[in-house]
Design a protein that fits this description.
The complex is a heterodimer of chains A (341) and B (234). Chain A is of the alpha/beta class. Chain A contains eleven helices and ten strands. Chain A has a five-stranded mixed sheet, sandwiched between helices. In chain A, strands 8-7-6-9-10 form a five-stranded mixed sheet. Chain B is globular. The longest helix of chain B has 18 residues. Chain B has 234 residues and is α/β, with parallel strands linked by helices. Classes of the chains: A alpha/beta (341), B alpha/beta (234). Chains A and B meet through helix 2 and helix 3 of A and helix 1, helix 2 and helix 7 of B. Bound molecules: zinc ion (ZN). Chain B: Keywords: Transferase.
């Protein structure tokens, strides 16, 4: 009988759910060995948003390049790997399919198990790469496609307690940025302008009382109407004042609801995840209230907030330990639900 | 030399394993299943049946287009990832040529086509044994294609599942010069794909990264963007 030795879990992770082609190698769910992201922002900027067909075409061009780079930067061979992980959904179906089929082909050739990861679970587990997660935990996931409050009682347990009923927060940012004639992606521009502004235009807040759900389409319409009315009166709008007013409304609703949920569920830790958690206004506001409440609050560094494969590898490491395995028949699931594993 | 062939350019699926010019196994199906679900399990199943490991593969041939954008991407992504993982060459073959190869013994012109909607097709035409290309593969209106074929005043064999959509129009234009491939020849075969390339010089493995489908059309959004740029420059 051979001697039992502890072996590292080394995961190659692939993420292609939207417009980033990404691959990463993660050790034991906590350590980033390599993290490669090929962004399409330069190409997609022309269209003022992500065009699915263009995104899919770019993924095919980049996919083997990013996987190779992830292995090279980690100085690893396929034989060093424990498993291959890939984003199964949600996301753009054509884009998801590139990562999934590359992951399956790679796993097949090297006889490795494959693990399909939920994109939002990935965003949440980006935090495991920064510090250990403490349960019960509340995650505010905000991005171009999502605005969700997720309660976790332990690893692999997810309960969505609130979600957007219409636009995602990031989507509202992009649409308002377009109204203000800012280039895509609009979020960072609005954030910067809002900080420069000395005044704010007052916009409504959608509270949806008795619920942790969100709604941002009314706010977006209010901004559009405001500009329309000013245009009709022949008055110039002050983009900075609009940006600040818009951002204050978004941030106040997100912060208040997250705080209320954190208290109700008596959580030990609150984390922010997703591209919009890079927003300075939101970060500062959340940091302040949770410091006052004495609840631990973390946001991963910027490059782990936006889409990346390291977060997919982090989640997959815990899934691997829990015995989760996928099949070679795995398909992209654009509207995949967040379920416990 | 062991070849793996992958054909997913349209709804049908075909996978083949060919060893030293002999077809060991081939599957051709027209079940309208999602390629993303079927391709990898089928490759695994066929290799198991012929007792080969993935590492036994020496080269991969894949249909590179034209066809369904998603179908092409799945085939090409699987082909290039397996090829890159094994450090073995991947060769792209025209999906129209593969289809035309089914009727390569026809003494006349062989025209393969796929429906591209709004009375357009992806089509190409070849002479017997595919020795010469008489109409380059392209995105073209069915009327224009038929006019070109009519001018050649030779018998034409039409190949492809989508030919049925245009049958009436074809007969109307070409009359007795029009021939239609029997149903057993309407589906692309991955073994044909390999047959078409196995004697050609192989591309280097360095070229795998840049291997992409031949869509024959730029994306709608890009076409509109280019139009707008031109307008802006005037
Ligand atoms: Zn995301």
């Amino acid at each position: 009988m051979g001697e039992f030795t502890m072996k590292d879990t080394i995961i190659l992770a692939i993420e292609t759910s939207c417009d980033e082609t990404a691959a990463a190698i993660i050790r034991n769910g906590t350590e980033i060995i390599s993290n490669v992201v090929a962004s399409q922002i330069e190409s997609q900027k022309r269209f003022g948003g992500v065009v699915p067909e263009i995104a899919s075409r770019h993924h095919v061009e980049q996919i083997t390049i990013v996987i190779e780079e992830a292995l090279e930067k980690a100085n690893m061979q396929p034989s060093d790997l424990t498993a291959v992980a890939v984003t199964e959904g949600p996301g753009l179906v054509g884009a998801l399919l590139i990562g999934i089929n590359a992951a399956k082909a790679f796993a097949f050739v090297h006889n490795l198990p494959i693990i399909g990861v939920h994109h939002i679970a990935g965003h949440i587990y980006a935090n495991a790469l920064v510090q250990p997660m403490q349960f019960p935990l509340l995650a505010l996931v905000v991005s171009g496609g999502h605005t969700e409050l997720v309660l976790m009682k332990e690893h692999g347990s997810f309960e969505v307690i609130g979600e957007t009923r219409d636009d995602a927060a990031g989507e509202a940012y992009d649409k308002v940025a377009r109204v203000l004639n800012m280039p895509y992606p609009g979020g960072p521009h609005i954030d910067r302008l809002a900080h420069e502004a000395d005044e704010a235009v007052e916009f409504p807040r959608a509270w949806l009382e008795d619920s942790y759900d969100f709604s941002f389409s009314g706010l977006k319409s209010a901004v559009i109407n405001y500009k329309h009315n000013m245009d009709q009166r022949g008055e110039e709008i002050n983009p900075a004042h609009v940006a600040r007013g818009f951002q204050e409304s978004v941030v106040e609703v997100l912060t208040t609801k997250t705080l209320r949920a954190a208290k109700e569920y008596n959580v030990k830790q609150v984390i922010a995840a997703g591209g919009v958690s890079a927003n300075k206004g939101l970060r500062t506001s959340l940091e302040q209230v949770f410091e006052q409440e004495g609840i631990a609050f973390t946001v991963p560094p910027l490059k782990l907030c936006t889409d990346n494969a390291a977060m997919i590898g982090a989640a997959a490491s815990y899934m691997y330990e829990a015995g989760v395995r996928g099949e070679l028949s795995m398909n992209g699931v654009p509207g995949k639900e967040l379920k416990s594993w | 030399m062991i070849w793996l062939g992958i054909e997913t350019s349209n709804a049908p699926l075909s996978i083949a394993v060919v060893k030293d010019g002999q077809v060991l196994i081939e599957i051709v199906q027209n079940l309208k299943l999602t390629h993303s679900v079927t391709v990898m399990p089928t490759i695994q199943e066929l290799l198991e049946k012929v007792n080969l490991k993935p590492s036994d593969i020496d080269g991969i041939a894949v249909s590179e287009g034209p066809g369904s954008y998603t179908g092409l991407r799945i085939g090409v992504t699987v082909a290039k990832t397996i090829a890159w993982s094994l450090k073995k060459p991947v060769v792209g073959v025209s999906s129209l040529k593969v289809l035309a190869a089914n009727a390569q013994l026809f003494n006349g012109i062989i025209c393969s086509l796929f429906d591209a909607r709004r009375q357009n097709v992806y089509a190409a035409s070849y002479t017997e044994n595919l020795s010469e290309t008489v109409i380059e593969e392209q995105h073209i209106s069915i009327d224009e294609l038929l006019e070109k074929l009519k001018e050649m005043s030779k018998p034409v064999m039409f190949v492809g599942l989508d030919v049925a959509i245009f049958k009436e129009k074809i007969v109307e234009c070409l009359g007795e010069l029009a021939y239609f491939a029997p149903t057993s020849l309407q589906l692309p075969r991955a073994s044909k794909l390999i047959e078409l390339v196995q004697n050609e010089p192989l591309p280097s493995v360095e070229e795998i990264h840049s291997f992409v489908p031949k869509y024959h059309r730029i994306a709608q959004a890009e076409a509109e963007w280019i139009k707008e740029q031109k307008r802006g420059n005037q």
